[in-house]
Amino acid sequence: MEISQSLLNVENLSVSYGNFEAVKNISFSVLPGEIFGLLGPNGAGKTSTLSAIEGLVRFSSGTIIVDGYDVIKNPLHARAAMGVQLQSTTFQPELNVVQILQLFSGIYGVPLDKNGLNRILKEIQLEDAVHRRFAQLSGGQQQRLSLVISTIHHPRLVMLDEPTTGLDPQSRRQLWERIEAIRKSGHAVLLTTHSMEEAEAICDRIAIVDHGKIITIDEPQALIEKHRNDPEVIAVSRRGKITLEDVFIALTGREVRA
Ligand SMILES: Nc1ncnc2c1ncn2[C@@H]1O[C@H](COP(=O)(O)OP(=O)(O)OP(=O)(O)O)[C@@H](O)[C@H]1O
User: Fold this and answer.
1) Does the reported pTM lie above 0.80?
2) Which of 31, 82, 129, 195 is found 20 to 30 A from 217 (Cα to Cα)?
């Protein structure tokens, strides 16, 4: 895969916390118009990988190129090209929906007049919740607001850490549609998820990560086809149907992580 074609190119990335190596020499690329999922058991190194790309943790070795910019040599350009989903703790608790949108449009240098503000509020269906603070919103409303903020500057690469965890099916579908709209615009999405259903539904390719290493990278359906006759996959399957979760469990093992 040509590096120049990729919106994100991660090459031989390692991340350590003291003596503990959480990410071990991983490489992958994300293309324009692609939704790429990082899947892995708890503690596999997914968030550490995202954090390294986002510039939140220092990595011990490797290179990360975002939209052609090396995150170490050109951090400002690289950061301008990415949108990062913010966790609720990042929002000032005393600010309401409108104030949060105004704050982040200011931070990103994106002009937001009254019409623009109303358009966004309508788009994320928060017109009736403008005066609520973040903590007073439902999980679905919080995620819609977080996603719109992470894309307010139209970044070419959007990174989402477990964007739909805890959402009801309606809210999850709506988020999926918004994520798919990012893909449609030719931008790329890198997300982490524990939902195999989500990976199958929206990811073009997935990387299965375990113990800091990438076990495999493929299209979800291709991965199922490739492994459907593996004895370990058949052994963990239920009701005679082979799913992505069966392949995932067979590849990463049945034991629960600490
Ligand atoms: N700041 C830190 N200091 C020390 N160890 C850390 C730190 N952050 C993460 N780790 C460890 O690194 C490993 C990878 O953690 P990471 O959060 O990247 O995993 P993950 O795949 O995102 O897991 P989860 O699915 O549970 O969110 C884990 O063993 C974790 O305990």
Assistant:
1) yes
2) 82
The span from the first CA to the last CA of the chain, in angstroms, equals 36
> Pocket of ligand 1, candidates 10, 17, 190, 198: which has the most ligand atoms within 8 Å of its Cβ, to mutate?
17
Kindly report the CATH number that applies to the domain delimited by 8-218: 3.40.50.300
pLDDT of residue 225: 97
For the residues 138-166, what does the mean pLDDT come to? 92
Domain borders along the chain are 8-218, 219-253
Checking DSSP bridges between strand 35-39 and strand 205-210, what pairing results, if any? parallel
Distance (Å) from CA 56 to ligand 1 centroid = 13
Please write the tens of the pLDDT for every residue from 37-89.
Answer: 999 999 999 999 999 999 999 999 999 999 999 999 999 999 999 999 876 66
- Which residues does residue 9 pair with via DSSP β-bridges, in sequence order? 29, 65
Asked whether the beta carbons of 40 and 245 are under 8 A apart, the reply is no
Question: Running DSSP on this structure, what letter comes out for residue 257?
Answer: P
